[in-house]
Design a protein that fits this description.
38% of the residues lie in helices and 19% in strands. The chain has an eight-stranded parallel β-barrel, surrounded by six helices. Strands 3-10-9-5-6 form a five-stranded mixed beta sheet. Helix 1 (3-11) packs across helix 2 (32-41), helix 9 crosses helix 12 and helix 15 runs parallel beside helix 16 (495-508). The longest helix is centred in the middle third of the chain and has 27 residues, at 360-386. It is globular, with a radius of gyration of 27 Å. It starts with a helix and ends with a helix.
């Protein structure tokens, strides 16, 4: 590897080597070709030594070619900016002014200025000076003006707390709640997929049981014309909601004739979710309702919709135009398909505006879907406040967005070109993962003052008391893989800025933050999360000691954990016990027969370890004590889910999340990573018990009582 190429890559934040683990720690040295690919993706050249040298010089000069950065993200105890000016301009003096972002009431800001560095460029001596804010600024965003004798310079200052928002447990020492895949909820009234009314009913059930938090899968909007593309982690926009969760019968102007009784009957009776059937039935009904809303423009509901549209700062319009374009493409002839593909290549230009003007009605309908979804989620928040839950909704923010999405279409140069996010091999996924999700260009993101990131945080913190950041390591570095390839490397982000922004938005939105960090986690990263008051997941199947075998005891769990038995990517308890996913992966040729045999033997040992951990903690139910060693083929231990829930409830973690799949002994994993619908019905499994029947079911009552016993509730 060329030393110059190595230097350039590292200065740009591109890892030249990295470690990864699939049971054994390995080191990967990144090829020169891959380094060049990512260097060029970031706008620099490195085809040969001369180009690489020029790129290094260009990068070194970059900070000296502008007076101020686009944004300075600081903590309130270290509010420092810098400015680069010709020495002669600085000699005339500097005045600094401040105003809350977007306001015009600037005042003089009390600062201390020190020279820190100089650089000669031609005949001009440039000076970099440090500006330390001496006034006490509240947490928030500020417009800054710096005036000299010759010019005026502007920047944005974000003043953040050192820590994210702190949880209010409302007098309880330990909390518990449900981790729910909203789509999986069955009820006697929904249309074949869980909806926001089911969520309200779950809140009542939780509150009556003494719980305080409901964790949800991402609620982000998915493809309108391909409902079977159902992964909540591959949305077309993380700013908006999936209208499939709308309870149609709760929408004003709904009429009973809007309901396709036959379609709903089939959807309810289907063993797995038929997304196409459900979504199309809902969209048809919502279109009828929308037509009535337009016929009643003076109604309070119609006026509320108009106000919702007026509040849009263009993101809603871009989403609706994108959805309309995609829908038009599905019905277009060959000639018009080419034209629409051209429009889908870029959101800029007069042709987009012409298209939008021509399709106003369709665009308005997509806006209406977002309005009603938002209205119903707001009602969920109202229910949470009525029931006085300590946390309420615990929402989930995906690490990326589909590359064929409204987000990327709206601003494609904000994202890395011709590559997508993934993960190298680790103990959970030995072959690695190629998600193909759009990833921010870190340099462009800063030039945009991190506003795209801020908008996404705010959209997902809305109505929530907690936010789970999927693959939180991505705020520090993200593993990227070229679209045409399988090998990747890490790209660094400005970790201090990213975490300061996260802390600021957490504070402003009064929303605690939970970081999902399962997989390849850099040394010291979890400690950094703890210092920032960011909670992290403590998953039973991953919390191990003695080289990954022995289960951690409850008193070894960190108080900052949101603890759970598993996740949507892991088998439910009963399926884990029997190794169902091992057999499935063998059938799909994801495991060789020898690998499957080894996995079964490992699972046999793990079962024994789990039984002994439960014995050690004395958490078996009184009337369902352990009856034996339950060696392979001996069956499923009666009462084990109660014992496991008691074990986890007993932990030090401030929050314990039950999965209904564990309570009701589900045998299907919600998502088998590395597979699509042609191999496995990901994101389609329904719970076996209706929401209305959970309260009185023996399984629910016994498990909740066990949790309350060991949570001291």
């Amino acid at each position: 590897m060329s030393d110059l190429l190595h230097q350039l890559a590292e200065k740009l934040g591109i890892s030249t080597s990295f470690t990864y683990g699939g049971g054994v720690i390995n080191t990967s040295v990144v090829s020169d070709d891959l380094l060049r690919f990512f260097i060029e993706s970031l706008g620099y050249s490195a085809k040969n030594e001369a180009e690489t040298q020029r790129s290094l010089e260009r990068l070194e000069k970059k900070r000296w070619q502008r007076a101020m950065e686009a944004i300075y993200v600081v903590t309130n105890d270290n509010p420092i900016m810098d400015i680069v000016l010709p020495q002669k301009e600085i000699e005339g003096g500097i005045e600094v002014y401040v105003a809350p972002e977007g306001q015009d009431d600037f005042r003089v800001l009390n600062v201390a200025i020190d020279e820190v560095e100089t650089r000669q460029e031609g005949r001009i001596l440039y000076v970099k000076e440090q500006i330390r804010v001496c006034d006490n600024l509240d947490f928030g965003y500020y417009d800054i003006k710096v005036k000299t004798s010759k010019a005026e310079y502007k920047t944005l200052l974000a003043v953040a707390p050192n820590k994210c928002f702190t949880m209010d447990t409302k007098g309880k020492s330990k909390l518990f709640g449900f981790a729910v895949q909203l789509y999986s909820l069955k009820s006697q009234r929904n249309w074949g997929v869980g909806d926001f009314s089911d969520l309200e009913n779950m809140i009542d059930l939780l509150a009556d049981s003494g719980g305080d938090v409901i964790g949800l899968n991402p609620l982000s909007v998915l493809l309108h014309d391909y409902p079977e593309a159902a992964s909540p982690y591959a949305s077309i926009s993380r700013l908006f909601l999936n209208p499939i969760y709308i309870d149609v019968e709760k929408v004003p102007f709904y009429e009973v004739t809007d309901k396709d009784e036959q379609a709903v009957k089939i959807a309810r009776e289907s063993e797995t979710i038929n997304y196409t059937l459900v979504y199309n039935a809902k969209i048809k009904a919502l279109q009828n309702i929308f037509d009535r809303v337009k016929q009643n423009p003076d109604s309070d509901y119609a006026k509320e919709f108009q106000a919702f549209k007026r509040d849009d700062s263009d993101e809603l319009k871009r989403l609706a135009v994108f959805q309309t374009l995609c829908h038009a493409k599905c019905t277009a002839d060959e000639k018009n398909t080419k034209k629409i593909n051209d429009l889908l290549a870029s959101s800029l230009g007069a042709e987009i505006e012409k298209f939008a003007h021509k399709h106003t009605a369709e665009i308005d309908f997509f806006k209406f879907l977002q309005f009603e979804a938002d209205r119903q989620l707001r009602l969920v928040e109202k229910k949470i406040k009525e029931r006085n839950l300590a946390i309420g909704l615990y929402r989930d923010l995906p690490v990326g967005v589909s590359k064929d999405s409204a987000e990327v279409w709206s601003d494609k140069y904000l994202y890395m070109q011709e590559s997508g996010a993934g993960a190298p091999p680790d103990s959970c996924f030995p072959t690695g993962q190629k998600w193909g999700l759009g990833a921010f260009n870190p340099f462009e993101l800063k030039e945009r003052c991190y506003k795209p990131f801020i908008r996404i945080l705010r959209a997902n913190m809305r109505y929530a008391g907690a936010l789970r950041i999927d693959h939180v390591m991505g705020l520090s570095r993200l593993y990227l893989i070229p679209d045409k390839g399988d090998e990747g490397t890490y790209l660094a982000y400005n970790v201090q800025d990213m975490f300061n922004i996260l802390a600021l938005e957490s504070y402003l939105n009064k929303c605690i933050v939970v970081g999902e960090c399962i997989g390849n986690v850099a040394d010291g990263f979890k400690e950094m999360l703890a210092e920032r008051n960011i909670y992290f997941l403590g998953v039973l199947w991953n919390e191990r000691e003695n080289n990954g075998f022995a289960f951690k005891m409850p008193n070894e769990y960190d108080a900052l954990y949101f603890a759970s038995v598993g996740t949507h990517d892991m088998p439910p308890l009963k399926a884990w016990w029997f190794g169902s996913e091992i057999g499935l992966m063998k059938d799909l040729k994801m495991f060789t027969p020898d690998e499957a045999d080894a996995a079964y033997k490992c699972r046999e040992h793990e079962r024994w370890l789990l039984l002994n951990a439960l014995d050690c903690q004395g958490v078996w139910p009184e009337d369902k004590r352990r009856q034996g060693d339950y060696l392979f083929g001996e069956g499923y231990p009666e009462g084990i889910e109660e014992a496991v829930h008691g074990f986890m409830a007993k932990s030090n973690s401030v929050v314990f999340m039950l999965q209904p799949e564990d309570v009701f002994q589900a045998m299907r994993i919600q998502n088998l990573p590395g597979t699509d619908i042609d191999k496995y019905p990901n994101w389609r499994s329904k719970l076996s018990v209706d929401v209305e029947d959970m309260r009185d079911s023996e399984a629910y009552c016994r498990n909740i009582n066990m949790v309350k016993k060991w949570r001291n509730l």
